[in-house]
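Collaboration report, partner site 2.

Our partner group contributed sequences for two proteins of shared interest, and the home lab folded both. The records are reproduced in the order in which they were received, starting with the first partner submission.
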Amino acid sequence: MNLTNAVILCAGLSFTLAGQAAQTITIATVNNGDMIRMQRLASLFEQQHPDIKLDWVVLEENVLRQRLTTDIATQGGQFDVLTIGTYETPLWGAKHWLEPMTDLPPAYDEDDIFPSVRQGLSVNGTLYALPFYGESTVTYYRKDLFEAAGLAMPEKPTWTQLGAFAAKLNDPSRGQYGMCLRGKAGWGENMALLSTLANAFGARWFDEKWHPELDSAQWKAAATFYVNTLKNYGPPGVSSNGFNETLALFNSGKCAIWVDASVAGSFTTDPAQSQVADSVGFAAAPTQVTDKGSSWLYAWSLAIPATSRHKEAAKAFITWATSKQYIQLVSDKDGITHVPPGTRISTYSDAYVKAAPFAEVTLQMMKHADPSQPSAKPVPYVGIQYVVIPEFQSIGTSVGKLFSAALTGQMSVDQALASAQATTEREMKRAGYPKP
């Protein structure tokens, strides 16, 4: 049996659609590297399922989230497969906007999925999405630059230490910047990074009674560090840089330090994509006054909207794309270091950990991240780099725009924080918080 047959047969789905008329499923996904690979390899799925055609809608992260949120809330029915995460899944699943992912074939091995990831994609113990890849936060750095400057990266650095390193390694005359971080506005872009930074400084989004705390001393310390560090030691145009843009900067050799999603490990160490592949070091996500909430937990996942007219075909594709057999397919086609990380226990075999220099720190950070305890102080919410309430998408986007404006000098940090506090208070009051 060849690998392609094995992938489909092991998923237990090769004959479920036999005899049905050809149907097209529309897949909405993000333009990240692992999803681009999925689109390429999906031609094998189509070969094994001649009755299923795949139509791809590949979008930038902020645009994808906006399109999917609008479509699901209005029951538009444009898509059969949604690429969403651990923020949307429990909220949309609870509203019955998603199909429950039940009756998975035994070969799928649901128990192989990391418990924290399963929990983040479930409502009352029922999965509403299947994880494509999982991630936490890690610190990427240039070992060659550190060595040349006589610096040593701690295994568990603090943000203050990273700032000091950035100052010493910043050399704009050579196109080399001390630290690169996300600056593009968006609840899942700059606010994902800034929320973990704020958590590390001891901040929280809301107190126990759901009162916003963006005007706290902890938020001010975190935001001041973020803005000053990027203004002094970051690349130009940082307010336009999200995950993909910053990854490109790092891979082109322009960043001495970068803190971001652990999924970038395979791209930074791939000589075909990275000019610094042989010089990348990995350390834990930075902490400050606490390590609680200092590294996020997220899983880009595939779900079926309740409005889909092709649920069986959509489930066949999702089960294939998130299976152990798909992971093996990627390993065989593109190399073991490129397999989708962070979802399955079985992925972290001795062979993978040995081949992927980022595997151990990724696993360490994913085990450390606890969305139920994201702050040094008690909180009424779940979520590290976001708050799992429907209102957060709007709040996070609005606040993200304010911090992006602070980066460009349109307003001071104090002005951004004051506006963020007022905006969040207004949104929460409108939503009826505090809840009785």
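Second partner submission, folded after the first:
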Amino acid sequence: MAAEPRDGADAIQDAWRRELPGVPVESIGIITRVWWAAKVFGDERRRLLADLGVDVATLDLLSTLRRSGPPYRMSPSGLAEACMVTRGAITQRVERAAEAGLVERTTTGSGYHARAVTLTEAGNALLDRVVGELLAAEDRLVGHLAPDRRELLADLLRELLAGLGGPGLTGQVGD
């Protein structure tokens, strides 16, 4: 079996192994490649979303509402928790999305603070278009991996994040 091709992470790892003998450098082969892949994925996502006329924060807000299921409504605190941002950040996101007609706020009396945020038909239509194009583009980014390798990589990344107490871990099957 042929050896795997070497890349820049291997060169960095080799250099630190030479410069600091006895110091564990194996993490470089994982963490450096994860950083590099995250940069490629993030840059591509931002470029595509800009082309589609939506920003990452708005996509996160609309997607969170949509994944909540009908009636696609959540409280601001629930949104903040689900999006892993502060209440202040959610307030700003909701304000921008409401001005664009993508969400509606339900307010209490004369107060400003929203009790609920609901996805509008316009927000739903935008999300359908954007998510369809985004997922197709992201599928192309990993398309060079065979299906069994994609599944293996997803499993390994899930295990890595679980060991780190990473985001997205709910303990619920199917989440």
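Feedback sent to the partner group on the second submission included the following. Residues 53-163 form a domain with the Arc Repressor Mutant, subunit A fold (CATH 1.10.10.10). Residues 26-52 form the longest helix (27 residues).
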